[in-house]
Amino acid sequence: MFLRASYASRPVHAPTIVAAALGVFAVLLAVLLPYSGGVHLFDWDELIFAEAAREMNERGDWLQVYVNYQPFYEKPPAFFWLQALAFRVLGVGELAARLPSAVFTAATGALLFVVGSYALAPGFGLLWALLFGLGLFPGIYGKLGLIDPTFNFFVLLALFALFATDEAKRQERNDPQLPKLTLVPGGYAGIAALALGFAVLVKGPLALAITLTVFALYKLLVPRPALKPAGVALFLAATLAVAGSWFALESLAHGPAFVVEFVRYQLRITGTDDGHPGFVGFHTLLFVVGCFPFSVFAVRGALGRALYRERRLQILALLLFGVVLGLFELVVRTKLIHYSSLLYVPGAFFAARVLWRVWRGNFGLHWGEVVGLAAVALLLAVPLFVLPYFGTHPTELLALLNDPIARSYVALPVPWGLETYLPGALLVGGTLGGLFFSVRGRRPVAVAVLLATGGLLANAIWVVFVARVDAYVSAPQVQFIARVGSAPLAFYGPLTYLPPFYARRAVANPHTPEQLQQLLAREPNLWVVTRAAEAPALPNLAVHERAGAYLLLGPTEKKARRDQPVAATP
């Protein structure tokens, strides 16, 4: 196992680090932004959040959250504030909805560069930032309009600022000296309180649970320098003041309804599977496979010995990884892929500890890491090659499918050319290239190839596969909304948040034939979008158009000509 050499003789200059961090931010943003606006938003979360931000601008009310013109109690409003600002600057659309995620994923990379520079060396910080930002799942999540990248940034900023508060009190010559924040009220502790309070406003009290638990455990293991009760009380008071500001304003303006419903929702997703059950080990498997190429190096980096600040940061990273993994594997029964995305940062830290030393020539890849890298690449390669094959041979896929809904999706003629094999070829070629250069002793080239493969693979999967999922699922529905225009509209079937965002108005979403019949009684000229396998048999509705799994139902042809501005399709 490995130890860390001393870098006290290599001072870290704050202005240089800040300038380099801005460069890291710009590079990662340039990787994340391309193609982000070329795909429709997806149900549920992306559309819920974007619609909440759109209605926030439309209503001019930045305190209450509404979705489909109904109160929405599940999340605080801070992330929607960011999206609403993006809509004001760029206009309402996919790119603006996803911009905060790209910005804060890139900002997380810049933060890791700064922390890594003061923990070990700027080269280590750069590698940590790139492993995270160019990893497969981080690269894809940075393109989705989800809360998690923003939430994770502020949780990490709070946690690292608390760590810096502790480190600033040390007088060890073996660690780079931290800059003094004389112009920031409260210094690093002030930054931590502000960041943690804002994290609560982004997603709720989960930020407090994770950050305070991790840092409390850290202080049990690293008790010196001791915490001062007055300082702890002041930090908690400042955090709660920031976190409680919106809750207080909302309660004063509109009563306690949101706070009550918000607490009920948090208890519900903790005690139930919330409709998304999974198995214990779900998030561990996702980390191993989804954090290609760095996940396989995390074990040696987590267990390898270290000294000084690197050792203390290793302890903090181990605690963060363990708390997040334990929380979402054992406590929260809802198993959604993005819930455990906070694992990516400590995982990338462990991998950076290994690959930085590989880069510097201290040692090579372990045979277990070579086998693991090949195994993860193989697991990823199977779907990346199977999907294009069935896309170009849909009749063979239809022969394997018995579910009528799945068959109706596949029936839509979406083009699958030879270029759809590119992600799989890129994965295999990049993995083999990295292993080849490692065997030949060109270790820096091997690490660079693996980094490039991760970043390019995330973009290739987005362009090839995410865009085609959109073509099967979201694009037909958006097409029908545009065709109907301002006529009365409803979406029949499962709960969906796509209609209000793309129709820019309230859209009914009946789930039963009785509910739909009641709507038709009030709106005889109603147009209905539904999946073909769930289409209701009602005499006053006729099929006007079909696109894959979806039907556009409307008034009978005679009634449409007489009363309806939307022309029927022959």
Query: Are there runs of 5+ residues with pLDDT below 50, and where?
Result: 4-9, 560-570
Helix count from the secondary structure assignment: 23
Query: What is the number of strand segments?
Result: 6
Biggest beta-sheet profile: 4 strands, mixed
How big is the Rg? 26 Å
Order of helices and strands: HHEEHHHHHHHHHHHHHHHHHHEHHEEEH
Helix content: 55-70%
The neighbouring-strand order within the major sheet is: 3-4-6-5
Tell me, briefly, the overall form.
globular
Name the average pLDDT.
Answer: 89
What does this structure look like?
- With 570 residues, the chain is mostly helical.
- The protein has 3 domains: 14-363, no CATH class; 377-476, no CATH class; 485-563, D-Maltodextrin-Binding Protein, domain 2, CATH 3.40.190.
- It is 64% helix and 4% strand.
- The chain has helices at residues 14-32, 45-59, 78-90, 94-119, 122-133, 136-141, 148-168, 187-203, 206-221, 229-254, 257-271, 282-290, 298-303, 308-331, 344-360, 367-392, 394-400, 404-410, 422-439, 443-484, 498-503, 513-522, 557-563; strands at residues 66-67, 70-71, 489-492, 527-531, 542-547, 550-554.
- It has a 4-stranded mixed sheet with strand order 3-4-6-5.
- Strand 5 and strand 6 (550-554) form a beta hairpin.
- Helix 4 (94-119) packs antiparallel against helix 5.
- The chain is globular, with a radius of gyration of 26 Å.
- The N and C termini lie far apart (73 Å).
- The model is unreliable at 4-9 and 560-570 (pLDDT under 50).
Task: Provide the fold topology.
Blueprint: H1 14-32, H2 45-59, E1 66-67, E2 70-71, H3 78-90, H4 94-119, H5 122-133, H6 136-141, H7 148-168, H8 187-203, H9 206-221, H10 229-254, H11 257-271, H12 282-290, H13 298-303, H14 308-331, H15 344-360, H16 367-392, H17 394-400, H18 404-410, H19 422-439, H20 443-484, E3 489-492, H21 498-503, H22 513-522, E4 527-531, E5 542-547, E6 550-554, H23 557-563
Parallel strand pairs: 3-4
Antiparallel strand pairs: 1-2, 4-6, 5-6
